[in-house]
Amino acid sequence: MIRRIIQIDEEKCNGCGACAAACHESAIGMVDGKAKLLRDDYCDGLGDCLPSCPTGAITFVEREAAAYDEEAVLENQRPLQQWPVQIRLVPTRAPYFDGAKLLIAADCTAYAYANFHKDFIKGKIVLVGCPKLDSADYSEKLEEIIRSNDIASVTIVRMEVPCCGGLEMAAKKALQNSGKFIPWQVTTISVDGKILS
User: Fold this and answer.
1) Is the backbone peptide bond immediately before 95 cis, with ω within 30 degrees of 0?
2) How are strands ordered across the β-sheet holding 184-189?
């Protein structure tokens, strides 16, 4: 279909990223230091990105483009796929666990790491907890979730502080006791919001 859509002049683009930040639909991204229209079907043709561009690299054109897909945009903006997320509250069996990439995260990580939703939650089923504040051994509940469902992978995100070691240990114990071989990894966030490992 012919429709109004943005066009980015790579020669004029200075790579500031202001347009990508202004695009509510995530149609624009930064690739090799330049702004790119990533998906035609995410561009609504309204041009929220235009006034943010300091070099005038973005214009409207009328061209053949996929129809704007509002449903896909909304789904892309909703990285959280299930509720509840607290380890103590989540059921041990649920349809969203089938084939799930499981994210087990310490409560504080989402506050300490600015891009937590984008970098960690998207595409994963989320379980959060704090072994210091919750007087519970998470390992039994996590083991039951892993044993009872078809979990594809496990990512553990913790803070660098010692109390978060309890969450990591509970997840490792659950994986080991489940009797399943599941790929897993641990990411540690510093108290100043950087990825340490």
Assistant:
1) no
2) 125-129, 100-106, 151-159, 184-189
Q: Find out whether 159 and 112 touch, Cβ atoms under 8 Å.
A: yes
- Return d(Cα 15, Cα 110) in angstroms, integer: 27
For residue 20, pLDDT over 90 is answered with no
Rounded to whole angstroms, what are the CA distances from 181 to 7, 153, 193?
47, 9, 31
- Which amino acid is residue 101, in one-letter code? K
| Average pLDDT of the segment spanning 121-136 | 88
pLDDT tier, 78 (very low <50, low <70, confident <90, very high otherwise):
low
86 close to 55: Cβ distance less than 8 angstroms: no
Task: Give dist(CA 154, CA 2) in Å, integer.
Answer: 44
Per-residue pLDDT, averaged over 143-159, amounts to 96
User: How do strand 28-31 and strand 58-64 relate by DSSP bridges?
Assistant: unpaired
pLDDT above 80: residue 44 = yes
Q: How far apart are CA 103 and CA 187, in angstroms?
A: 11
Looking at every residue in the chain, the average pLDDT score rounds to: 91
Query: Among residues 170, 178, 77, 177, which one has the least CA distance to residue 186?
Result: 170
Mean pLDDT of 164-171: 94
Q: Decide if 42 contacts 8 (C-beta within 8 A).
A: no
For residue 95, give Cα distances in angstroms to 58, 72, 80, 145: 43, 21, 15, 12
